Amino acid sequence: MSKVRAFTILEMLINLTIMSIIMGLIYFAYASFVKQVINYQVSIDEQNELTTSYVQLRTDFFNAERIVKSYKGFKVIPYNNKEIEYKITDKYLIRRQVHMLDTLSINKLTISSDFNIITKEDLITKMIVETTLFDEPIEFVIAKDYAPNLKLKL
Fold first, then answer.
1. What is the pLDDT of residue 150?
2. How many domains does the chain have?
3. What distance in Å separates the CA atoms of residue 96 and residue 94, rounded to the nearest whole number?
4. pLDDT tens, position by position, 27-66
5. Residue 17 is part of which domain span?
6. What's the mean per-residue pLDDT of the chain?
7. How far is CA 93 from the centre of its chain?
8. Among 146, 60, 124, which residue's Cα sits nearest to residue 95?
9. With CB atoms counted within 10 Å of each terminal CB, which end of the chain scores lower, N or C?
């Protein structure tokens, strides 16, 4: 009589246990990798949004003929007279231009301005924006140097 060679139930259970442990480790490694990739993407998006807002704010200041302080914000008046309105809330700096609306999360905003006696406008000369990036506080400074004809009127 020939003897049939096969695995016993005990050998199959041990094999199944070992394979389950290996598959669990592979799943854990994959899940950790995916989580790191998602966190990295979120941090890159956060950095890109802050950089875009900073560049836009600097461009608005640079292209402005004057920046007039208002009750809850300020207006950027460029040479082409297409006003850009900024509104300041407790947590956000909101930029509105025609049909576009952009926001920047802020912790604190400090504005320096000079009052122009002739035009009766409060012109912003410097702004310090404090915000967070990667859960770390950062600040950036934006200044406006006005044309001589407006400086003489200050």
1. 64
2. 1
3. 7
4. 999 999 999 999 999 999 989 999 999 999 999 989 888 8
5. 9-153
6. 88
7. 11
8. 60
9. N
15 burial type by CB count under 10 A (0-12 exposed, 13-18 middle, 19+ buried): exposed
Distance CA 150, CA 148 (A): 5
Please tell me the pTM assigned to this model: 0.73
Strands 121-133, 84-88: pairing is: unpaired
CB 33 within 8 A of CB 40: no
H helices of the chain, in order, are 9-63, 148-153
d(CA 10, CA 16): 10
Q: Judge whether 33 lies within some domain.
A: yes
Neighbours of 127 (CB within 10 A): 21
Mean per-residue pLDDT, 83-108: 89
Q: Is 68 inside any structural domain? A: yes
Q: What confidence tens digit (pLDDT) does each residue in 64-78 have?
A: 888 999 888 999 988
Given a contact cutoff of 8 angstroms between Cβ atoms, the answer to whether 139 and 145 are in contact is no
Q: Are 121 and 66 in contact (CB under 8 A)?
A: yes
Contacts of residue 103, Cβ cutoff 8 Å, sequence gap at least 6: 92, 93, 94, 95
Residue type, 129: V
Task: Please check whether residue 146 lies inside any domain of the structure.
Answer: yes
Domain contains 2: no
